[in-house]
Amino acid sequence: MSEIKYNTKQREEILSLLRNNRTRCLTAREICGSVKAGEATVFRTLSALVKEGVVSKFLSGDAPTYQFNECGTHHEHIHLKCSECGKLIHSDCSFIEELEEHFEKDHNFRVDRSKTVIYGICSECAESEGKNG
Amino acid sequence: MSEIKYNTKQREEILSLLRNNRTRCLTAREICGSVKAGEATVFRTLSALVKEGVVSKFLSGDAPTYQFNECGTHHEHIHLKCSECGKLIHSDCSFIEELEEHFEKDHNFRVDRSKTVIYGICSECAESEGKNG
DNA sequence: GTAGATGCAAACTTTTTGCAGACTG
DNA sequence: CAGTCTGCAAAAAGTTTGCATCTAC
User: Fold this and answer.
1) How far is the CA of A7 from the C1' of C7 (A)?
2) pLDDT at residue B1, rounded to an integer
3) CB A34 within 8 A of CB A20
4) Distance from CA of A99 to the nearest CA of B (A)
5) Among residues B76, B3, B70, B15, which one has the least CA distance to residue B42?
6) Which nucleotide is nearest to B44 (CA to C1')?
7) For residue A32, what are the CA distances in angstroms to A5, A55, A64, A115, B62?
8) Strand partners, B119
9) Domains of chain B, start order
10) Is the distance between the Cβ of A7 and the closest atom of strand C smaller than 7 Å?
11) Burial letters for A122-133: b for 16+ Cβ neighbours within 10 Å, e otherwise?
12) B75 pLDDT more than 70
C-alpha cells in the first residue's frame, strides 16, 4: 500500500492526533497508544502519509518520530537535542534560513533540516551542571 | 560497560576495520560480518567507542552507521554529511562560530560541534541528480 | 459489488541483557 | 588473581507481512 484511496476512521484519527500535536514529534509507539487502530495500520498509514508529504518523519533520536507537516510551509524549525537530558527542542527561529543559505552558497551543500540535529547542552542542564559539577 | 579498560583482539579488530574504512560508514551488521566478534561485543564496543569520541554514529538512513572520527580530539569544525553518497565533509569555516553564538545567545543552548552533524546533499550529488532525475 | 483498508498474529530486523567462562594487565 | 570482556542464547523493541474479514465509495 503506497497510496491511500479511501478515508477511514483510523486514518482520520491518526491524522487528527498529529494535527492536534503539530508542535510535537510523536513516535509510532505513542501514536499506537493514542489511537484505536492496530499497529500494522498505524505503520501503514504513517508510511503513506509521509509519502504524501502530509507528515514528516524524523530520525533524530532512538526511534523515528512523526510530525504533522503544515503543507511544507512555515514549519521552519530545526532540532536541538540535549546530550545530557535527551530533550528534543524544536527551534522555530529564522536563523535556520541563514544557516541553509550559508551552507548552500559557501559549501554547495543543501541542508536537509528534517534530518539535521544539533547536539549540545540545554539551558537547564547547563545550569545544574554549573551548580553541581 | 561504558568505559573500556582492557585492549582486546575484538576491539582492535573493530577499530582497525573502521580506521581502514574511514571514508565509509559501516552498519553494525556490516561490522559484525567483517570481524571475528559476537554481535553483542560489536554493539558494546561500538557504543563505547562512540562515547569515547573515537567513532561517530550517524542516523542518516534506515540503520545507524558508524564511522571512524579522524579528529577525535580537536573538534574545530562541524560535520556535513551527504545523505546521498554518505560522504562526510569537515567544514572548517568560521560560520560555525556564528552558529554556536546564535544558539548560545538566542536559545541558551551550548552546541557540541563534535556530536553535531548537518545532513543534506553535497554538490556532486546535487549535480548528478540534476542531470539524471 | 469491488478494490482497498483493517486487525491479528507471526515473522523479521536490530539491539540489549544475563551469565558462565576466558582473557588482560 | 581480580576485574573485565566475550560469546551464546534468549529477550526486547521496532517494524513488516500474510491473510481472512470488513468497509468506503
Assistant:
1) 17
2) 54
3) no
4) 8
5) B15
6) C16
7) 22, 16, 14, 23, 21
8) B81
9) 9-68 (1.10.10.10), 78-128 (3.30.1490.190)
10) no
11) beebbeeeeeee
12) no
pLDDT of the residue at A60: 66
Grid coordinates belonging to A101? 543559505
Residue nearest to nucleotide D23 (CA to C1'): A8
Query: Residue B90 forms beta bridges with which residues?
Result: B79
Beta bridge partners of B88: B81
**CA–C1' distance A111–C19 (Å)?**
47
Cell 530520525 identifies what position?
A: A59
A70, A26 in Cβ contact below 8 A? Answer: no
Judged by average pLDDT, the poorest of A92-96, A123-127, B126-130 is B126-130
Please check whether residue B68 is in contact with residue B49, taking contact to mean a CB–CB distance below 8 angstroms.
no
Local structure of B81: helix, strand or coil:
strand
| Shortest alpha-carbon distance between residue B86 and chain A (Å) | 13
How many beta-carbon pairs below 8 A join chains A and B?
92
Task: Output the nine-digit C-alpha cell for A88.
Answer: 528534543
Is residue A44's pLDDT more than 80? yes
CA-CA-CA-CA torsion sign (B49, B52, B55, B57): positive
**Which range has highest mean pLDDT (A115-124, B47-56, B112-121)?**
B47-56
| Strand C close to B7 by CB, under 7 A | yes
CB within 8 A of A82, min separation 6: which ones? A88, A89, A119, A120, A121, A122, A125, B109
* B:2-31 residues touching chain A, CB 8 A cutoff: none
Cell of B118: 548537518
- Three-state SS for B64? coil
pTM attached to this predicted model = 0.77
